[in-house]
Amino acid sequence: MSAPTVGVLPTAPQILCAFQGRRFQDRELLRSAHALAELHARRAEVQDMNLVAEIDCRRSELIDDINEWIAQEIPQHRNGASLHTESLGAVVDRMARSWVDANTAIDVDGARSDNTHKHWYHLAELVDGYTDLVTDVAGGRRRLPEQ
């Protein structure tokens, strides 16, 4: 049995599980979310600017994949739906970066540090924003920008 979704969109807890490498294989968007988290983790470790550019290029491709998937799966309601300022792929990418930063802060500063708290708080804000966004998109109250 699969976890609940908002329409066809994965919930924020599903996205977070995908970042961790759990329960993502059967959903295209979750596979892309997992790959974005892996790329952000790798990007944080490399010093070679050419490799950073390659990682960023691959991230851009995954963001486009998410945006193309959402365009096919969710009809965009134009009448009365307000336009969101960034694509769903960009939102998931920012969440992936924040998730990596929060986990890195635990490893470097410990679970009780102010820096760790700051990073986890930021991730929680992004999770709330994602939840609101997908609920509004699924309900036809918000539309995503075209690519």
Percent of residues in helices comes to 55-70%
Average the pLDDT over all residues and give the rounded result. 89
N/C terminus separation: 33 Å
Characterize the overall form: globular
Q: What topology, given as strand order, has the largest sheet?
A: 1-2
Q: Main sheet?
A: 2 strands, antiparallel
Element-by-element helix/strand order: EEHHHEHHE
Query: Low-confidence stretches at least 5 residues in length (pLDDT < 50)?
Result: 1-5
Oligomer type: single chain
**Total count of helical runs of at least 4 residues:** 5
Global structural class: mainly alpha
How many strands appear in the DSSP assignment? 4
Rg, alpha carbons: 16 Å
Q: Give the percentage of residues in beta strands.
A: 5-15%
In short:
Helices cover about 65% and strands about 5% of the residues. By secondary structure, it is mainly alpha-helical.
